[in-house]
Amino acid sequence: MEIRRIESIIEAVLFASGDAVSAEKLSEITQTDINTLRSVVTGLADRYTYEKRGIKIIKVGDKYQMATRGEFSEYVRQIVEPRRRNPLSKATLEVLAIIAYKQPVTRVMIEKIRGVNCDNSVTRLLELGLIEETGKLDAPGRPSLFCTTDEFLRSFAIDSISELPPITEFIIEEPVQAMEEAVE
Amino acid sequence: MEIRRIESIIEAVLFASGDAVSAEKLSEITQTDINTLRSVVTGLADRYTYEKRGIKIIKVGDKYQMATRGEFSEYVRQIVEPRRRNPLSKATLEVLAIIAYKQPVTRVMIEKIRGVNCDNSVTRLLELGLIEETGKLDAPGRPSLFCTTDEFLRSFAIDSISELPPITEFIIEEPVQAMEEAVE
Amino acid sequence: MKQISFKLEIFEGPLDLLLHLISKNKVSLYDIPISDITEQYMDYLSEMKHFDIEVSSEFLVVAANLLYIKSKMLLPKYEGEQEEDDPRTELARRLEEYKRFKEAAVYLMEREAAGSHTFYKMREYIEPRLIDESLTDITVKHLVDAMAEIADKLRYRLPIKAKTFKGLVGREIISVFSKVKAVLKSLSNLKKIRFSDIFKGVKSRDEAVASFLAVLELIKMNRVKVVNSDEGVVLKYVKNTKEGALSFGDSQD
Questions:
Q1: Cβ of A9 under 8 Å from any chain B Cβ?
Q2: C101, C104, C120 ranked by CB distance to B65: nearest
Q3: What SS3 class is residue A134?
Q4: Could you tell me if B97 lies within 8 Å of chain C, comparing CB atoms?
Q5: ipTM of the assembly?
Q6: Where on the phi/psi map is residue B87: left (φ > 0), alpha (ψ -120 to 50), or beta?
Q7: Nearest neighbour of B16 by CB, restricted to A10, A17, A68
């Protein structure tokens, strides 16, 4: 069989398969001896690369697979709907609530209340500009004190922190106690 | 952007998508005006054809899709599980023809033409994804309106509905002719 | 009579049957010999019954229509009467339309064979981009709910520790610490203080409680000895046994 035709068959088979196809199988389909087959596939793959085509042929063990060239992945990603991410996960929202009601607070205070590490949430809230560092606590290690920002007020459509609805006695009492423990 | 690069992006996107991608979407992704885009895709498709590549680019309505060239189907069948399905019955093909030419249509409209209930055929066509419900007729009972799908265009190798031969071209046999055949 | 054995042909519907009869009789769609065709149509229906095939209402509707057309055509025409439309016209039009779609169905069948040679592939897995939703969907209620949830979680934490009473002094925990320092400072100077003097100059209940807590803390730390004397309850300074600075934290052990 003509080399050109073998190439086309390989192209059709690799495309339709979508998966990796063994050299053996390709050799059987094209009725070409396996060494010739391998050199044809390599030649085809080289041409794709040389021409900077959108697709490439990769070798996976003794199999060949068609794939998009990595260079174009940013374009390819545009065909799928972007995943909408809720900017505030539940954990982050909790951390934000603690900061809003108890500001200024340190990381350790927040962690005492929530019982878990809050670094990611604090980082995310800083990124979103909802909180900011307003100073250092006068305590060993001089931990940062966090407060909510004007952006926070805008996002939650309130004029000032004092407008936050009061939380019930119980809810206040417990976190305060926990915070005090945290300070020690 | 360089034509060559646009071609490669189109190649990557059509390959990864597997499905048909609209000209509009491709124009957006490549940031190319839609007319240029269309001519680039057509040029790319022509080159595939000229070079007798294993893959081709087909037009599905106003969308483009990558597919294997029909010529190589016997090879592709050796690796891909053929989408073998029971052939469509005469009745179902008739219903499909009516929907293709008269879309959007309701069940009642189809039944008027065929003089017989079409529920089974419509259900089968919906199952096969060859037709879809596209809305409701603004009439008592708000009956469903059916149209053909991209899958229909692909399965029947039709570029677009407008390329179907005009229904009036299907010649109604003259009795004289029928008589002559009978003599033979 | 010759015994005719035949397989009853199945038709897609009454129109399909009519087209079959018309083509069998080699007549034009536009000049249907209505009597003959009606007769053959009715024969077929009785054949269906004979073969125990259910005759659907659609076949009966067309049968009624054929009989109606036949009767109309039998009516004599009077001279001078306006030429009426051929009663067969509507039927012919319907048959023609149906016939065209039958042809279109054959065309589609041929196209389908062409389509079956083309293969497609599945979509690759493509990692979607992440886009942040706008913050405008989040309200103060979310904050309050989050806070309530935190309270719920706290309720199930470890039992409340003995030092919970410190909560009584509110946020001013530092004041207990500062009171400890203040009391220790006066004690190191004066060596002894009347218990009541500790509360001199105290401005709030919180401060008083803090002062009291400071005394308790110092007792616990063994830095103060409580003595009953003529002057009332007196706190006596105890020299720090350990060298080094005052360590509030150590006292918790």
A1: yes
A2: C120
A3: strand
A4: yes
A5: 0.65
A6: beta
A7: A68
In chain B, residues under CATH classification 1.10.10.10 are 3-77, 90-170
Q: Residue A131, class by beta-carbon neighbours within 10 Å (0-12 exposed, 13-18 middle, 19+ buried)?
A: buried
Each residue's pLDDT, cut to its tens digit, for chain B (184 residues) gives 789 999 999 999 999 998 899 999 999 999 999 999 999 999 999 999 999 999 999 998 889 999 999 889 889 988 887 666 678 899 999 999 999 999 999 999 999 999 999 999 999 999 999 999 999 999 899 999 999 999 899 889 888 888 899 988 887 665 544 445 554 4
Q: Name the packing angle between helices C14-24 and C57-74 (round to 10°).
A: 50
Sequence-distant (≥ 6) Cβ neighbours of residue C102 within 8 angstroms: B94, B97, C16, C19
Residue C130's pLDDT band (boundaries 50, 70, 90)? confident
Residues 42..81 of A with a Cβ closer than 8 Å to B: which? Answer: 52-55, 66, 68-69, 72-73, 75-76, 78-79
Look-up: residue for tokens 């809230």?
A: A125
Topology, domain A3-77: Arc Repressor Mutant, subunit A (1.10.10)
Query: In whole angstroms, what is the distance from residue A48 CA to residue C53 CA?
Result: 63
Candidate from A67, A87, A97 with C-beta closest to C150: A97
Q: Where are the domains of chain C?
A: 14-75+85-115, 133-250
What tens digit of pLDDT does each residue of C102-116 get? 999 999 998 888 888
Q: Summarize pLDDT for B63-73 with one digit per residue, the tens.
A: 999 999 988 98
- Mutation to test the A interface, candidates C121, C123, C135, most A Cβ within 10 Å: C135
What's the DSSP call for residue C13? Answer: S
Residues of C with CB under 8 A from a CB of B: 12-16, 23, 26-29, 56, 58, 62, 94, 96-109, 111-112, 114-124, 126
CA dist B45 and A23 (Å) reads 28
In this complex, do A75 and B25 lie within 8 Å of one another by their Cβ atoms?
no
- The fold for domain C133-250 equals Arc Repressor Mutant, subunit A (1.10.10)
- Structural domain A90-170, CATH architecture: Orthogonal Bundle (1.10)
Segment B91-118, tens digit of pLDDT: 999 999 999 999 999 999 999 999 999 9
A25 in reach of chain B (CB within 8 A): yes
